[in-house]
Write a structure and sequence with these properties.
The protein is α/β, with parallel strands linked by helices and 220 residues long. The protein has 3 domains: 1-33; 36-136, Sandwich (Immunoglobulin-like); 140-219, Rossmann fold, CATH 3.40.50. Helix content is 21%, strand content 40%. The strands form 4 sheets. It has a 4-stranded antiparallel β-sheet with strand order 5-4-7-8, with no helix packed on it. The longest helix is centred in the first third of the chain and has 31 residues, at 2-32. The radius of gyration is 25 Å and the shape is globular.
């Protein structure tokens, strides 16, 4: 009888172990087969100026079946790791066919170093997410440069008004917002050796409004 009991106990242990292996394999397969992936970039070349509107670029790739849902981008402002002081959520519908990649762009404002999270939601349930910590934040002067020459006006970073060197950010045409409110994040915008006819009407209007509202535009 004792031998029979041992065999029964052994069968239970083996069955439990087999179930655990099956669950583990299922979890690994689920992780490996995640059909939706997100990449997120915040700021200009990952530089974020606090208390100003900064760009958030999100790329979504679908390696699974067609997807219908929404994208939520959430920025949190925290002090000393405490609870969020304010949460803003950007939402946009997402329709993504199998094998496709789609690019989204929005803007967030952070008063304190924190993080930005992008989440894909379907039927009220989060199905994929990605976050980015704001590792490089500052509150000093920032100069945006539009130029076909990659090092144009880099020397501005050696000028120290008030003892602080400005951050020089090189922009592509697509980086320039069509909103003057966003452009106000730049203390100056310089255009040198750049074909301005590549800018959209909205971008040109935003530059005009930026100057009208007190922004500095330098033309080379």
């Amino acid at each position: 009888m004792q031998s029979c009991g041992r065999r029964s106990a052994l069968r239970v242990v083996l069955a439990f172990a087999a179930a655990a292996v099956a669950v583990g394999a299922s979890v690994q397969a689920s992780v490996a087969a995640a059909p939706l992936t997100l990449t997120i970039q915040v700021g200009y070349h990952n530089n974020v100026k606090l208390s100003q509107w900064m760009p958030v670029a999100v790329d979504i790739t679908n390696s699974g079946p067609d997807f219908e849902g929404s994208l939520e981008v959430q920025a949190t402002n925290t002090v000393g790791g405490g609870p969020p002081l304010g949460v803003a959520i950007y939402q946009a519908p997402v329709s993504l066919s199998s094998g496709a990649t789609k690019h989204f762009r929005t803007y967030v404002s952070e008063d304190y170093p924190g993080s930005v999270q992008a989440t894909l939601v379907q039927n009220g349930r989060a199905v994929a997410s990605q976050s980015a910590n704001l590792a490089s934040t500052f509150s000093g002067l920032m100069v945006g440069v539009l130029s076909d020459q990659p090092s144009t006006l880099d020397g501005l970073s050696s000028v120290r008004p008030g003892g602080t060197a400005p951050l020089v950010v090189h922009l592509a045409a697509a980086d320039l917002s069509d909103s003057a409110a966003v452009l106000r994040g730049f203390d100056a915008i310089a255009i040198d050796d750049f074909a301005t006819d590549t800018l959209t009407a909205g971008q040109k209007t935003a530059l005009t409004d930026y100057v009208t509202q007190g922004g500095t535009l330098l033309l080379g």
